[in-house]
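Annotators were shown the component list below and the corresponding predicted structure, then asked to write short factual statements about the assembly.
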Amino acid sequence: MHEVGIMESALTVVQRHAAERKARRVDRIVLRIGTLAGVEPEALRFAFDVVTRGTVAEGAVLAIENAPARVYCPACEREFTGEADSFIFTCPDCHALCGEVRSGRELELSRIEMS
Amino acid sequence: MCVECGCGKNVPFGVRVLSYLAPGLLKPRATAEAVATVNPEPLSPLTVEVHASLLAKNDLAAARNRGLFAARRILALNLVSSPGAGKTTLLSRTVDEFGREHRCAVVVGDLETDNDARRIHRPHVPVAQITTGTACHLDADMVARGVGALDLADVRVLFIENVGNLVCPASFDLGEAVRVVLLSATEGEDKPLKYPPIFKSAHLVLLTKTDVAAVLGFDLQAAADNIRRVAPQAQLIQLSARSGDGLAAWYDFLRTHLPP
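Structure shown to annotators:
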């Protein structure tokens, strides 16, 4: 439950961009969150409402894009996308359990739309 | 449970050093504002493609820690588990035995008290206790401050005992070379299935308290199977810090991972 801290660091970046561009308000914020990032989108939404209150980003839409896990199979020398809602990754070709996660831990602020 | 409750107050954390060398509290250090921003071509003046990592500040501090450990040829391990899985008991015995062979130092994180640091502290082992206040995990800057308070002369192994929590520490790189996740026989065999991100990030999983598994009806084989399914990348060692079973394998692991 460190989602408030994460949203606070997002808000800091948003406020800086809004000030630089003299934006009146922030309409939309897009986050990209990996399946394995270890944060809960629902908790992020709750935190977002709390931390943006009284700021330029109050009332903005929070869009959360999911970044699925990309996993490497050393036997087949290929990357595959881990199934959603599962954390047990088996290669679609050789069905071996694979542990080399190439991406899926993203926790980033992708885009800010202001007016 | 964290600073993160939305109260808006920043509860400061403290570092207490239990070491014959550097007692007392640390002075706070300024942290660099370090959120990377890439801004190629905005779609419109008021739409910005930012692509900023929300953990950039922590990741930068972690990279600094990693550099320090590499330069000093220190093997740094981040020990993560639920509260009560046996991290402190394992470390106490490890510094008594393995610590006679290679100099060890310990940074311990807890919400409150320096009980764990007192348990681990030995004349030959510098220990720093970090009290996080309400924060549910250690971050890289806290570790830097804890480590900064220790005399690292001749230290080859640094154990970072994280706050007991299987969720939040998964996201925070501390600059460690090895992440160790402990699962004890007093928990459920299916914990790896319930908390996959932390197990996915492990280099080593220790199945602890094996001496009481039979009494508790804990199925070691089922637990090991679950660990292998969720964390096939991780090495697995079963041990009991009380009986001593499996400790030789743990010490061997440490020896083989010492930087040359």
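Statements collected:
1. Residues 3-20 of chain A form the longest helix (18 residues).
2. Chain A has a mean pLDDT of 94.
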